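Methods — Computational structure assignment.
A single polypeptide chain was analysed. Its primary sequence is given first, followed by the predicted tertiary structure written as structure tokens.
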Amino acid sequence: MAGRKPTMRDVAARAGVGVGTVSRVVNKSSSVSAETRARVEKAIAETGFHRNEVARMLRPGQASATVGLIIDDLENPFSSEVAAGALQVAKGRDHVLLIGSTERDAQAERDLVREFVRRQVDGLLIVSSDRKPIDETLGIGTVPVVYVDRAPAGGRYDRVLLDNHSGVKSALNGLLEAGHRRIAYIGGSPDATTGATRLRSYKQLLSQRGIRPDADLISMHNYSTDSARESTIGLLTRRRPPTAIFSDNNRMTLGVLQALTTLGTTVALAGFDDLELADLLPFEVDLVVYSPADLGRRGAEQLFRRIDGDTGPARTLRVPTRLDRRGRRFHAPD
């Protein structure tokens, strides 16, 4: 076999069985005896045979044993944890997880959907940056889709989402009960479904407490830690600065922390998402935490239910959040 790749015929000859028997072993059929299976697997190892997955995928009706995951930012720890949860489920189902990043670009998301469908993935998980649902012109056909964390409007596809409203409510209640009324909001994209939901909850909860949301205390369109830092510095150096800040994701919280360090000051701070080493902060921070891996895991589990033939109505699954108080105690001003 020197100079060429081993084939099923080579495995069959070495194991003393027919090619059909080798095929059944490779495809994990239960119709092969344990003794024969062991002999074929030994021959596979000795010959170095690997099934041609590309050729297998090209056969009509054949599953690809791959699923796609589309995320918006490879550098964000949130994305890697979502991927880890999805990967755990995919591996348990003998599937390969293919990952693509959109860098928060809606057109890049559509291009990736089209590319994954072209590669005949068995299903798609999407952390969406596109407020519009998948367009039929992308050729999605019958490929199952589950949206994770962020999903466009519409009820056609399954969604696994955080309980964003409860998370914002727990964080703001803590600030309000500490006596704060001028609570600033540092956020990213108001077009992302998570950002829009959290901002809406912030305004609603303040209004319910008789506090009119102040547009001058709301800073959106911060797409990086640096931007969040500069926006926070701008707010805190005003004549009437806020006494507390709510940041709507981990990068925003990091930017706020950098601003506080730069200015050498402190304000009460609550943020959405966990932070590494938050317990080492020199002042107290309330963080809305949850398991991103659980988002990925539950999304993948629902996706495989669809792959297995579940044709029931679209489902929305909610992953709970909780409020953790981290760092050292900070006393709000009287």
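Note: The longest helix spans residues 77-92.
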